[in-house]
Amino acid sequence: MQNQVIELRQYTLHPGKRDELIELFERHFVDGQEACGMRVYGQFRDGDDANRFVWLRGFRDMPARAEALKSFYGGPLWQSHRNAANATMVDSDNVLLLRPVESDAGLAPVRAAVVVATVYLLTEPAGSDFVRFFDDRVRPIMTETGAPPMARLVTEYADNNFPALPVRTGEHAFVWLAAFAGAADYERHVAKLRASQAWNDVVQPALVERLKSPPQILRLEPTAHSKLGQGCATGGVHDFDFLAGRWNVEHRRLVARGVASDEWEEFAGTSEASLHLGGVANVDEITLPAKGWSGMTVRAFDLRSRRWSIYWINSTQGTLQPPVTGGFDGDRGTFFGDDVDDGRRVQVRFVWTRQNADAARWEQAFSYDDGKSWETNWVMEFARAR
Question: Which architecture, in CATH terms, is 5-222?
Answer without folding.
Answer: 2-Layer Sandwich (3.30)
